[in-house]
Amino acid sequence: MTEITDHLAIIERRVAAAVRAADRPADVLILAVSKGQPTAAIEAAFHAGIVDFGESYIDEAVRKMDTLALPAVTWHFIGRIQSNKTRTIAEKFDWVHTIDRAKIAERLSAQRPADKPPLNVLIQINLAGEPQKGGVDEAGAAALAALVDDLPRLKLRGLMTIPPAGLTPAEAADHFRRVASLAKRLARPGRPLDMLSMGMSGDFETAIACGSTCVRIGTALFGERRRGGV
Ligand SMILES: *Cc1c(COP(=O)(O)O)cnc(C)c1O
């Protein structure tokens, strides 16, 4: 697992260089996307200094959480949300990046345990209207942000996006900039929207240039995923 330490050092250097090139604050979180990776890989990343982990499949995530005995890990749910899984997400996770429906937001708020802080949530933006991905368009985001404001156990923290596959870096930058600009327009007092979850292994430097504050890194950190989860 020494590779993970080496990969993390390389990613941290690349993030720092992208932050410097963009002349912006060094406020970029490296979220380790551990879906399809064994618990030993999560332990190795934790010991290398990673605190934030992202998972996409709820059953796989819970199996790992129950096996791992790591103090103070912050879990982020980054997958599509089925309404019969909201209770587990509300109980087990600290952040959810993929809010895209009123019903899901309402259930998460109702099911968030009283002894935990409000659940941090991001609205997923799908500018191209790709049917295979979750997310809402710009008008949908405004409506959903207003709804989440009124849910007592959710805290709206920002936006998340996955650009369409196969874009050139210039096209991806355009996509990221539109989402960053939407976050600025939707921000208001009491709703800072300071978290922009944009960029993965293949495009995180472009995303940082466009204002990302959270890069979701899987394969560049851990290597290839096991198919079908672990
Ligand atoms: C799997 C996944 C990632 C990580 O992708 P890599 O290309 O392996 O870095 C990031 N974000 C989401 C939403 C994912 O599902």
Instruction: Write down the overall geometry.
Output: globular
What fraction of residues sit in β-strands? Answer: 15-25%
Q: How far apart, in Å, are the first and last alpha carbons?
A: 17 Å
The profile of the biggest β sheet is: 8 strands, parallel
Mean pLDDT metric: 96
**Which ligands occur here?**
pyridoxal-5'-phosphate
Q: Treating each run of at least 4 consecutive H or I residues as one helix, how many helices?
A: 9
- What gyration radius follows from the Cα positions, in whole Å? 17 Å
Estimate the helix proportion, in percent: 40-55%
What quaternary form is this?
Answer: single chain
Number of strands: 8
- Helices and strands, in order, run as HEHEHEHEHEHEHEHEH
Q: Strand order within the widest sheet?
A: 7-6-5-4-3-2-1-8
| Uncertain ranges | none
**Secondary-structure content class:** alpha/beta
